[in-house]
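A sample follows:
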Amino acid sequence: MNARQRRGTLLLIASLVLALGALAGVVAVVNDVESRVGPERTAYELAEDIAPYEEVTPDRVREVSIPERYISDSAVTDLDQLDGRVAVGPLTEGSLLQTDMLAERPELDPGQQEIAVMIDASTGVAGKIYPGATINMYAAYRVNQRTGEAGGGSEDTEYEIVRLMVNNAEVIEVGDLTEVDDEDRGATEAVPITFALDNADAQRVTFAEAFAEQVRLALVAPGDEQEIPEEERTYTIIGDIGGDPHADLGAQIP
């Protein structure tokens, strides 16, 4: 073996030694990472955005594997933990699901019943009403009132009034947008909304759905629920323009 061949052999050996050293370094790093990370565990992240009080079902999450040491005690690791649970706030796609993001679905109190009514999407929902929300329901009516005259005759007068039908009603469920036929406006869009109400309020809501010119829902801010006095529950424009407020008109509406 001449000098050139000896140099080539030495370079080849040196290259192999360096390669083995680099491989040993990579293996050491991998082993160190594995020792730090430890075994993985199944968890679940959101596959889509979920609005407050919407039900979190298995088809709305996806399975992910995460090192066990990085999973908190509150992480959802079993799909059974989703049974009957709704989001307590807005949840964003990709977020790791935690049990404190969920709450039990609202249940009826003693004496309450569920009642579903169709609410005009453009005037009553506007995408802001959600299960678990508290709302006030207002209805607008045209009311005929017969007034007496000095000569003993009478006259029918028509008034427009707005009536608070239900104060602080709890929304149980918001259905899908549905096309319905309206006798006056033709095809329109409405949303079925289910409320938890006592018997009297259920009748008021049914009356409003059947006879009101228009029904509107007003979303009550969480923690701002208050009982509206009876004298403030009926409105007519007459009172605002300084005439007879016709306070007794409210008696014609439940």
In short: The two ends are 113 Å apart (CA to CA). The chain has four helices and eleven strands. The CA atoms of residues 196 and 248 lie 29 Å apart.
